[in-house]
Specification:
Subcellular location: Cell projection, Lamellipodium; Cell projection, Ruffle; Cytoplasm; Melanosome
Keywords: Acetylation, Actin capping, Actin-binding, Cell projection, Cytoplasm, Nucleus, Phosphoprotein, Repeat
CATH class of the largest domain: Alpha Beta
Number of domains: 3
Pfam families: Gelsolin
Family: Belongs to the villin/gelsolin family.
Order of helices and strands: EEEEEEEEEHEHEEEEEHEHHEEEEHHEH
Subunit structure: Interacts with NUP62. Interacts with NUTF2 and RAN; involved in CAPG nuclear import.
Length: 415
């Protein structure tokens, strides 16, 4: 397609922000595009193309941005995050227009359903997680502002955190465990701007359920005996100590998998320095009782539950690349477990576990900045294309080298 001469006229309107009038001299066409601080804006929809032999699903121009007609006409205020957040601790900000307003310790765990929040859990050498919490009544303005601020915060921390999008009512156990006193929802939005925050450092405590027969996977669950049953295996991760627990009715495949995942946690997340204790139901060590309390009568399990888990544990892998000048998504593997070599450092990838309500975006260390910056937008478009419920589908964005055990388990080997 031939390039058209373009003339740009810029004017500042009080309510619309910067308006750019684009005149195509050869066609006499004219459009008005507001600049909302997302780079070059356009009113074009994402171009969806049919699958072909290469497995290409869809593509978009490298500089394409989503419809921002309802976005706030201002840019994210720079310099909002101070050096103190590089220290271990829990940091929470509420999004006010395009500003991240820190919350005091007394307010942590209380979320207004009309707002969006940033939650940073910095564990120092053990890693960091950046959560975007979206209230069910939050506006598109606030959701877009939250995404922009998350990108700014991620850049401030050198792209180090693993990013997650949490939606009200569908938060991950990892997120819920950040607030020992619980999470509460309030109606409306907060008008007061808080200016002070405090940090706290908590030890690692996670509980994983290992379930299935053919497609066996671990998923993080609530830290409680209520999560247990006789037919599955569980891993209690305490950082320096890992307890591998086998239910009396667990199948042989789950018994093997729970040992593999416990070893994976020790070797890849604890640098081989954690101890592993393997126990059967009824042999619970004192450290397990101390955290969970006395063990009550546990629920039974049925073979049908394992069959249902096999269905939800399936996954596919897609490559995201803009090597040809436009962002493209190509399926590289239909079914897990995948070969780790499929992850190429110069690209980004989507691991689709949407049947279980989760999408992973893996950012290769050599991927260009545009691919990394567009990760959340690409995930959103993928969710839409696959007809997954957006507010119920979690998104986890993983920089290369910061992969979680939940992500690693979809690969044949991970060393």
């Amino acid at each position: 397609m031939a390039k058209l001469p373009v003339i740009l006229f810029m004017s500042q309107l009080p309510t619309a922000g910067l308006v750019i009038t684009v005149c195509f001299s050869t066609l006499g066409a004219q459009r008005n595009w507001p600049d909302y601080g997302w780079g070059r804006s356009t009113d074009e929809d994402l171009a969806i193309t049919p699958c072909d032999e290469s497995g290409l699903l869809w593509s978009l121009p490298t500089q394409h941005t989503p419809d921002t007609s309802r976005m706030l006409p201002i840019k994210a205020t720079p310099g909002q995050f101070g050096p103190e957040i590089r220290n271990p601790g829990l940091w929470v900000w509420r999004v006010e227009k395009m500003k991240a307003v820190p919350l005091p310790k007394s307010e942590l765990g209380a979320f207004f359903n009309g707002d969006s929040y940033l939650v940073l859990s910095n564990r120092g050498d053990e890693g960091a997680d950046l959560h975007m919490w979206i209230g069910e009544q939050s506006t598109h303005d606030e959701q877009g502002a939250c995404a922009l601020l998350a990108t700014q915060l991620d850049s401030f921390l050198g792209g180090y955190p693993v990013q997650h999008r949490q939606t009200q009512g569908y938060e991950s156990p990892e997120f819920m465990n950040l607030f020992p006193k619980g999470v509460s929802y309030k109606v409306g939005g907060v008008e007061t701007a808080f200016r002070k925050t405090q940090s706290s450092e908590d030890p690692v405590q996670r509980l994983y359920q290992v379930k299935g027969k053919k497609n066996i996977r671990a998923k993080e669950v609530k830290m409680s005996w209520e999560s247990f049953n006789k037919g599955d295996c569980f891993i209690l991760d305490q950082g320096k100590s890992i307890v591998s627990w086998v239910g009396s009715q667990a199948n042989v495949f789950e018994k093997q998998k729970v040992r593999e995942i416990a070893t994976l946690i020790r070797d890849t997340e604890r640098n081989g320095k954690a101890s592993i204790v393997h126990v059967n139901e009824g042999e619970e060590p004192p450290e397990m009782i101390k955290i969970l309390g006395p063990m009550p009568a546990l629920k039974e399990s049925t073979p049908e539950e394992d069959t249902q888990a096999d269905v939800s544990n399936t996954a596919s892998l897609y490559k995201v690349s803009d090597a040809t000048g436009s962002m493209k998504l190509t399926k590289v593997s239909e079914k897990s477990p995948f070969e780790k070599d499929l992850l190429v450092r110069d690209d980004c990838f989507i691991l689709d576990n949407g049947a279980n309500g989760k999408i992973f975006v893996w950012k290769g260390s050599g991927a260009n900045e545009n691919e990394k910056r567009e990760a959340l937008k690409i995930a959103d478009k993928f969710i839409e294309q696959m007809n997954y419920p957006r507010m119920k589908t979690q998104v986890e964005i993983l920089p290369q080298g910061r992969e979680t055990v939940i992500f690693k388990q979809f690969f044949k080997t991970w060393k």
